[in-house]
Design brief:
By secondary structure, the protein is of the alpha/beta class. It has three helices and five strands. It starts with a strand and ends in an 8-residue tail after the last helix.
Length: 108
Amino acid sequence: MKSMETETTRFTLTDDGILVGRAINPGTVRTAENIADALSSLERFLDGQRRPGLWDPRTVRRFSAEAWLAMIGRLGKSLNALAILVDDRIGGSMGAFPDAMDSMLMPV
């Protein structure tokens, strides 16, 4: 198992090859810039290999619309499937993501 951390997310690659991403720093607004930085770091961390992912964004307070677009456009480089943990705390921060999931080229 190995891990790395960016401004917005702690990534852990489990021994069975599943990438787990947990949102950190809940007060940090997710912007296109910090999401792009996190995804660039993730791509290097995974060394170009696509993995199934589990993402827990439940502590995030706000994603900008541009952050969602930046994320949706690049997740397919790192992931081949994605599961997202949600609950009633996450409602407002999901923004445009549910509508944009249909454009992703992997199972979500």
